[in-house]
Specification:
The chain has 2 helices and 12 strands; from the N terminus they run H-E-H-E-E-E-E-E-E-E-E-E-E-E. By secondary structure, the chain is mainly beta. The longest helix is centred in the N-terminal third of the chain and has 5 residues.
């Protein structure tokens, strides 16, 4: 497996570009570069956001840290309750934490906004979505046979939580 890739040779993941379930205002393409390179402890994704759009809702990670390197274009970065103008060459750190670290990149221009998202890959991770009150728990769980793992994703709201003994006899 090659351990080097040039960004001009990277293709985008077709299933992400074709996600028809995203609401209006979310249009992005993704390329999982870290996976292509065989990285195990760092994630690296090339993200391209369409004009006037976002790649993801405002969110924060409880376990993983992210860093963004803006390659092309300009936009806006929301961190917690603050807005910041961003442009090519900017490097952004988003440490793990609560709503004060929640972040969202928006393309405010008429041209594509391209950036690298680099992150730690701790599993499981818990991601909060402060605007909607949701959370996501995700990771890969051992399958039990030691040969492979299976993905786990759960999206919910805290108020819908069950009690520890609920349904037990």
């Amino acid at each position: 497996m090659a351990r080097i890739v040039n960004l001009s040779d990277v293709g985008f993941d077709p299933e992400d570009a074709a996600d028809r379930t995203a609401p209006a205002g979310y249009a992005a393409r993704f390329s999982a570069i870290g996976v292509q390179l065989g990285a195990r402890m760092l994630g690296c994704t090339l993200i391209e956001i369409g004009p006037g759009c976002r790649a993801s809702p405002l969110h924060n990670h409880r376990c993983n840290e992210e860093m963004f390197l803006i390659l092309e274009g300009c936009g806006s970065l929301r961190i917690g309750g603050e807005q910041h103008a961003i442009r090519a060459g900017d490097v952004i750190a988003c440490p793990p934490g609560g709503p004060e670290t929640a972040h969202q990149i928006v393309n405010t221009s008429e041209a594509p906004l391209r950036y690298l998202a680099i992150s730690t890959m701790a599993e499981p991770d818990i991601i909060d979505y402060p605007d909607s009150g949701k959370f996501l728990v995700k990771g890969n769980l051992p399958a039990g046979d030691g040969a492979r793992s299976e993905p786990f994703r759960f999206i919910g709201r805290r108020e819908a939580s069950l009690g520890y003994w609920d349904g037990e006899e």
